[in-house]
Structure formats: C-alpha cells, structure tokens
Task: structure prediction
Amino acid sequence: MLLENKNVLIYGIRNKRSLAWGAAQAAAREGARLCLTYLSEREGDEVRKLAADLPNSESILIVPCDLTNDEQVVALHARIKEEFGKLDAVLHAVAFAKKEDLDGRFVDTSRDGFLLALEVSAFTFVTACRHAIPLMPEGGALLTLTYLGSQRVSPNYNMMGIAKAALESSVRYLAADLGPQNIRVNAISPGATMTLSARGIAGFVDLYKLAAEKSPLRRNTNIEEVGDTFAFMASDYARGITGEILMVDAGAHALGY
Result:
C-alpha cells in the first residue's frame, strides 16, 4: 500500500493499452484515491468502464479536462480541491503531433505542427504542474512520460522527439523551481510499448520486435511495469529523487534502442 491515503491525478487514459491506465491500476492497487481525466465523451465512456473494475471504484473522480483549455483546467482543480482537499501526485501522459510531422523528414515540419506538438506534448506539463502546486502544501510528486527519441534520432518520431526533448528539459527546470516546496518532478521513459499511439508510428512494429530481440532483458516494456514505476515514484520511497529521467525499457537504452 505505497500510496495509501494519497490523492493521485492521472491525465491521458485513452483505453486499456494506455501507459496511463497501467499507472492508474498500480496506484489504485497501492491504495491511492484517484482522479482520472478524459478528452472526448467517447474516451470518457471508456475511462468510466475501465475504472469500474479498480479497487474502491466508487471513490474515483472522473472529470473531463483538455490541458490546452484553461477553463477546464481551473474547473478540474476546483473539483479536486472540493472533493479531495489536496493532491499528492500527478501523472501527465499527454502528447500529440500531426501525422505528417512524424513521417518523412523533420526539416519539412510545418510551423503550425511544430507549435502544436510543443504545446500539447510539453507545455501542458507546465500547465499541469502550475495548477497542482496550490494543492500540494506539504509537497508531492509530479511525473510525465517521455521516450528515448528525445535524445537520439528515432525513425518516424521526428517532431515528437523534439517535443519530448523540450519536455525533459522542462522536468529539470521544474525540479529546480519546486524543490524548495518539497515537490519532486521526474519523467519515466518507457521502451517500445504496444500502445494505440505507438502503433500509429510508421515502422513501430519492426522497432518493437527489434527491441525485444536486442534489449538486455530480451523482452519489451509493458504498461504494468510503467505503472509500478509510477507507483514507486509517486510514493515516499522515492522522496530523494527529482529532476530524473528514469528509463523503464528492459535496458534497451544501454544499447541505443
């Protein structure tokens, strides 16, 4: 029960294959009270369906929130304050880039696509942190998800790699800003994981197979491993860790995959 008596906010669940869903399962298992967000009503229906099978499902708060919509973000945190009183941990699992800015050459990225990917994939984490801070008077943990394509060229990742690099730099600056308030800021960097978003990247299936063949553990990452890592990083056991990009990829990064 690593997260007993802790309130946890998770952005970005889309379906049962989502990394954020792995985090929600782990957090619920470890005793957290959850707030889960969604974008569209269709996704909301899916989140509600999934949440019904979690421990203490009757206490889970499910609220619509688009992190690019300031009114929705304010309303979400007002609801959390009313229902929970405070927050102890947040997971930001939000990213987007236009498909045409993933395929082909990075040099052909459009201005609109560049700005959109940076806003959704990086700046929304800043937004999530800014609004969570007032609900963390005694400290807390703010986490996001990244990928090795931020540091190395990954085929057909292009604009998303640039956005993830900005996200990782944001983690370090936020950690420096918020450390005096006992708020830790970290990122989890999973390896190739079979999510809906990943399957939309050209050549991902080949990368997925290669990572399983070449990684030190000779297997791929799964959402449960990412979820367990989140539960640890959100807990008091990780109280000395901040500004970190934690690899959870069966060791693939050590070999450049």
